[in-house]
């Protein structure tokens, strides 16, 4: 009866800061880094005392952090109460569990509610696992004396344990030292847990999902429910209503995204202790969710690369706060910068969409131009345009580069005005070096910027040269590529799949 669901991490390529306000759009790419949630019954049959007490047992296990937490779930109030290991409380998973169960109560008739009660009385056994790409393992690689290369990352076991702080290694209260890579682990984790639970409880059926379904070409009502519950759980857990692009991409995959109006979550935000949770969830399910999402993915023969410079992370909330203070103190100048940033974002989106259309129109010509340009620096690309159809492709490639340079300029300008390092000097040097290399179309800082990761989009086979150059500059190229899929139902425990793959490769 185990249900395994997964949801991807993200890279916000355009729309940093702007995506916080409607109607500004952001291009968000989902990745091959996925969070998994495994849900199964805790007991083979119902404990007799459970009927009388109206409590269900819930076990949450996070193997990578060596954490296990036991909860009691009140079947009347649908609230979790930790009974052990309260040190490691995970508000994102807790809200995901409570809200998913409340969604079942809010949507089921009496017969289904009786079945739900019996299912819950068998307890819930929930395991969460995040791909290595969500976390930084530079320290382990350097400690092993290995080079900063993707091959070194690939040598780590799947779902590697997260290191513990050295000064706490003998204490009772060990806390995992979680250095993240900025792929949106909390959004992916929340979405995976919500999806697995909603499917397990019978609220949605994710078995027949197709890529088309996730982008609204068929009935996407199942995913819409996952989205509403995951978005609500994530916002309430983090204590604020964010833009939601990370949860939206975790559910639906790569997309062009315009945020929802924050008012749709007012009932969840303002709910008092006395308000029944089913009432709160019923309200958010019926609210007018006005976010916009349009299917988007990189054009063919282009590769997304992410690099970890190892210069420490940045606090996105504090950087967003600084930008908002600058907007309030200098509304005229900030509005002009945002207008130009928005125009640059739109231009980049237009050039990439046009390249997709040109690839559809004549793939052979497109493939020929991309492969030729992958071996040259950008200033030599026009030399490969010997006929109008080739010149059209090169024109769009150069237009995309120009748009990205403009976006970077105004992001730096905004950072200087707000007093924060959106594109720090060290990143500027790295990005300029990257964009001057053969076959590199774009390079930038994703999302809110800072010292987290950098991204590049490369043409054809040029990505290997970029990762080598990054390694020589002390930048670790991560094992992350674009995967346009959103939330998915998996066949089995991902650890079993990884072990099988490892055994097969040894036999080969």
From TrEMBL:
<keyword id="KW-0808">Transferase</keyword>
<comment type="pathway">
    <text>Isoprenoid biosynthesis; isopentenyl diphosphate biosynthesis via mevalonate pathway; isopentenyl diphosphate from (R)-mevalonate: step 2/3.</text>
</comment>
<comment type="similarity">
    <text>Belongs to the GHMP kinase family. Mevalonate kinase subfamily.</text>
</comment>
<keyword id="KW-0443">Lipid metabolism</keyword>
<keyword id="KW-0753">Steroid metabolism</keyword>
<dbReference type="Pfam" id="PF00288">
    <property type="entry name" value="GHMP_kinases_N"/>
</dbReference>
<keyword id="KW-0444">Lipid biosynthesis</keyword>
<keyword id="KW-0067">ATP-binding</keyword>
<feature type="domain" description="GHMP kinase N-terminal">
    <location>
        <begin position="180"/>
        <end position="253"/>
    </location>
</feature>
<dbReference type="GO" id="GO:0005777">
    <property type="term" value="C:peroxisome"/>
</dbReference>
<dbReference type="InterPro" id="IPR035102">
    <property type="entry name" value="Phosphomevalonate_kinase"/>
</dbReference>
<dbReference type="InterPro" id="IPR016005">
    <property type="entry name" value="Erg8"/>
</dbReference>
<keyword id="KW-0547">Nucleotide-binding</keyword>
<dbReference type="GO" id="GO:0019287">
    <property type="term" value="P:isopentenyl diphosphate biosynthetic process, mevalonate pathway"/>
</dbReference>
<keyword id="KW-0418">Kinase</keyword>
<keyword id="KW-0752">Steroid biosynthesis</keyword>
<dbReference type="InterPro" id="IPR006204">
    <property type="entry name" value="GHMP_kinase_N_dom"/>
</dbReference>
<dbReference type="GO" id="GO:0006694">
    <property type="term" value="P:steroid biosynthetic process"/>
</dbReference>
<dbReference type="GO" id="GO:0010142">
    <property type="term" value="P:farnesyl diphosphate biosynthetic process, mevalonate pathway"/>
</dbReference>
<dbReference type="InterPro" id="IPR014721">
    <property type="entry name" value="Ribsml_uS5_D2-typ_fold_subgr"/>
</dbReference>
<protein>
    <recommendedName>
        <fullName>phosphomevalonate kinase</fullName>
        <ecNumber>2.7.4.2</ecNumber>
    </recommendedName>
</protein>
<dbReference type="GO" id="GO:0005524">
    <property type="term" value="F:ATP binding"/>
</dbReference>
<dbReference type="InterPro" id="IPR020568">
    <property type="entry name" value="Ribosomal_Su5_D2-typ_SF"/>
</dbReference>
<dbReference type="GO" id="GO:0004631">
    <property type="term" value="F:phosphomevalonate kinase activity"/>
</dbReference>
